[in-house]
């Protein structure tokens, strides 16, 4: 990286102070504790800390330029080199966009969705790694999909990258728009519209309206990929106009037929109904919901000219990170930890998947609170427990957290055992585990349901 002070100032609409005319930076950071010799430090104000309070630390760690907000000018050390802007968050995003645009051959894919976006991101990573080589693909790290995380990932780009797969997240209106503007994608995917963050987004139509902003910043000639069976598709299609829209799913232009599977693997058939091209995928993921995510990834890839058979080979190499369907063994049983995230729709999808192969008398669903589900919070928790009872009539179902506990109390089923929190459940879980059975953990991240899994590895 080599970005001149003058180019940066023009890109972010800022004013330079105390800098040499030929100055440049070789890296960027928002963390004053990191060593950044010759780097640019963005002083970003946050809920707990304000980057403007750490300007001296950034200089000691090698910063050649400090990006600060004009209303914090009094915090600038004497004679320190500065780039003065109205908003350092927006400047960080604008600088990241400028840097991304310095790679003219790069293609960028943006994703969002109520559930499944990280899984789909990993599928896209695997497909493009198969097509171009792993070293030529950059993808979002971890959960860095917010206003700070998106530019952070764009600044990870280098001249080797041909493809960037960037995940975006939102829980309030107006958050996708600046991310989409920063990414300015060649293709964008909305993986799902579900009952998530309804406390702020209010309705499924609100979720769709917010996420559809991802399409409004598509490059001319860009591609918008959407689930074929999404009731809110009219909102998404309108936002994508005049770009090309591809539907993917069971009834999509890029269709998928799920052929079934078990705990360890599954198979499905992909078909591009526009060309007749088809390919079978045998992979180490399972569930119809994951096959549908794969169809979305495939739709992007074929729009970039990648043959469907290459797509299939890439998908067969896909694996998921973190607490997403993580499989381990404890207390003589198989544990499936999918406690990273949850909403009513992803809960139903994964419970349906579990019912495909789990022996009803040997499965222990441990279902925790789903957060930010809006004004119907009580009804959706009751709905999920009722669905679990329907799918697993012989199982003991563990409800964890105040929301699940309240729903369980109303249902008054002897099948449901409630615990107020994850710690209490962890202390009692051993007595519910069935030898050679399956313990399935699913909840929103804030429930900390991963605590229930024994740490005996």
The percentage of residues in β strands lies in 15-25%
Number of domains: 3
Number of strands: 22
Q: Please, how many helices?
A: 16
In CATH, what is the class of the largest domain? Alpha Beta
How does CATH name the architecture of the largest domain? 3-Layer(aba) Sandwich
* Structural class estimated from helices and strands: alpha/beta
Average of per-residue pLDDT values: 93
Any idea what the radius of gyration is?
A: 24 Å
Regions with pLDDT < 50 over 5+ consecutive residues? none
CATH topology of the largest domain: UDP-N-acetylmuramoyl-L-alanine:D-glutamate ligase
Produce the secondary structure layout.
Blueprint (H helix, E strand, L loop, with lengths): L2 E2 H8 L2 E3 L6 E2 L1 E3 L9 E4 L12 H6 L2 E7 L12 E4 L2 H13 L6 E6 L4 H16 L4 E3 L9 H6 L8 E5 L8 H8 L3 E4 L7 H4 L2 H8 L1 H4 L6 E5 L5 H8 L3 E6 L4 E8 L4 E7 L5 E6 L4 H16 L4 H8 L10 E5 L2 E6 L5 H12 L7 E6 L8 H15 L5 E4 L1 H10 L4 E4 L2 H7 L9 E5 L15
Parallel strand pairs: 4-5, 5-6, 6-7, 8-10, 8-11, 9-10, 11-12, 12-13, 13-14, 18-22, 19-20, 19-22, 20-21
Antiparallel strand pairs: 1-3, 2-7, 14-15, 15-16, 17-18
């Amino acid at each position: 990286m080599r970005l001149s002070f003058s180019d940066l100032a023009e890109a972010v609409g800022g004013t330079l102070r105390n800098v040499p005319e030929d100055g440049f930076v070789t890296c960027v950071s928002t963390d004053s504790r990191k060593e950044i010799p010759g780097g640019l430090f963005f002083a970003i104000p946050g809920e707990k800390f304000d980057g403007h309070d750490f300007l001296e630390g950034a200089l000691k760690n090698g910063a050649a330029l400090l990006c600060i907000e004009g209303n914090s000018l009094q915090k600038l050390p004497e004679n320190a080199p500065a780039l003065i802007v109205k908003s350092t968050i927006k400047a960080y995003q604008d600088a990241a966009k400028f840097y991304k645009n310095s790679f003219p051959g790069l293609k960028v894919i943006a994703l969002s969705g109520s559930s499944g976006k990280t899984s789909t991101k990993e599928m896209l990573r695997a497909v493009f790694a198969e097509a171009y080589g792993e070293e030529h693909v950059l993808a979002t790290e971890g959960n860095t999909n917010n206003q700070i995380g998106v530019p952070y990932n764009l600044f990870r780009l280098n001249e080797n990258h041909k493809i960037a797969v960037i995940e975006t997240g939102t829980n309030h209106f107006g958050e996708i728009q600046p991310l989409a503007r920063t990414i300015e994608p060649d293709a964008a995917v909305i993986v799902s519209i579900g009952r998530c963050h309804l406390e702020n987004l209010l309705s499924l139509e609100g979720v769709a309206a917010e996420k559809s902003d991802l399409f409004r910043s598509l490059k001319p000639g860009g591609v918008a990929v959407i689930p074929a069976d999404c009731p809110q598709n009219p909102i998404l299609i309108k936002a994508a106009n005049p770009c090309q829209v591809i539907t993917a799913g069971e009834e999509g232009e890029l269709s998928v037929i799920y052929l079934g599977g078990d705990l360890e693997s599954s198979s499905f058939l992909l078909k591009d109904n526009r060309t007749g091209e088809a390919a079978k995928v045998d992979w180490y993921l399972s569930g119809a919901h994951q096959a549908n995510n794969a169809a979305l990834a495939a739709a992007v890839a074929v729009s970039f000219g990648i043959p469907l058979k290459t797509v299939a080979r890439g998908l067969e190499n896909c694996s998921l990170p973190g607490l997403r369907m993580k499989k381990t063994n404890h207390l003589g049983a198989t544990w499936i930890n999918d406690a990273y995230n949850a909403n009513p729709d992803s809960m139903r999808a994964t419970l349906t998947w579990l019912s495909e192969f789990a022996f009803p008398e040997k499965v222990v669903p441990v279902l925790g609170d789903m957060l930010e589900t809006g004004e119907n919070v009580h009804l959706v928790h009751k709905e999920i427990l009722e669905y679990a009872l329907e799918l697993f009539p012989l199982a003991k179902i563990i409800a964890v957290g105040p929301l699940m506990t309240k729903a369980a109390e109303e249902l008054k089923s002897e099948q449901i055992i409630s615990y107020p929190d994850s710690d209490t459940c962890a202390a009692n879980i051993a007595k519910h585990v069935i030898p050679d059975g399956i313990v399935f953990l699913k909840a929103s991240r804030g429930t900390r349901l991963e605590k229930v899994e024994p740490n005996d590895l």
